[in-house]
Design goal:
Layout lengths: L1 H19 L5 H10 L8 H12 L3 H10 L5 E2 L5 E2 L1 H10 L8 H13 L2 H9 L18 H9 L9 H12 L3 H9 L1
Helix pairs in contact: 2-3, 3-4, 5-6, 6-7, 8-9, 9-10
């Protein structure tokens, strides 16, 4: 009996960290729905802090958590992924992170350091052609659906990613003025 309890405890201790930081876990999805945020963006720790901040009417902490999303990245509907590291590389290269893979960003930065204009122009010409999972992408060109969603919300589709358009639509539906301002100003 003791052996079964000990094995169960060890298995639980090993499994908890895997689910705690995963925004796609069942617990995180359920907590997201309870918190009224889009599932898959926030991990369990962020959702716990969000619920506690809301319970304490701490608007500053709520706004901060909502502005963070998952610390390690947000996957958009078109398969692109923007992580903190990828965003940092894009900032260094002076480009939009969603338009380039990590490999392209690293190649661009190296070309900039080497002052290799031909390589810089080549990498820049590839903007929006591939996602980090290797799929050819047309994410840099707004689709008819993107343009329609933008028109419904009174914004220009070329200024926001599909992910931001969806978040904006949800924020407008929820009448969440803080989140609307954050999305439009980022």
């Amino acid at each position: 009996m003791f052996k079964k309890i000990a094995l169960t405890a060890v298995a639980a201790a090993i499994a908890v960290p895997a689910f705690a930081g995963n925004p796609q876990s069942a617990g995180a999805i359920q907590m997201s729905l309870e918190a009224g945020v889009t599932p898959g963006i926030y991990d369990v720790a962020q959702l716990q802090r969000l619920q506690e901040a809301r319970a304490n009417s701490d608007k500053e902490t709520v706004a901060f958590i909502l502005s963070q999303g998952a610390d390690y990245g947000v996957n958009t509907l078109d398969g692109s992924s923007v992580t903190g590291g990828k965003q940092q590389l894009a900032n260094e290269a002076g480009v939009n992170a969603a338009d380039f893979t990590i490999a392209q960003l690293e190649r661009l930065i190296q070309a900039q350091r080497d002052e290799d204009d031909e390589e810089i122009n080549f990498v820049l010409s590839q903007a929006g052609t591939f996602t980090d999972n290797g799929v050819v992408s047309t994410s840099s060109v707004p689709t008819a659906g993107d343009r329609m969603l933008a028109a419904i919300n009174g914004v220009d589709a070329s200024n926001l990613s599909r992910h931001d358009l969806i978040l904006l639509d949800q924020a407008i539906s929820d009448n969440d003025q803080e989140r609307i301002r954050w999305i439009l100003n980022k």
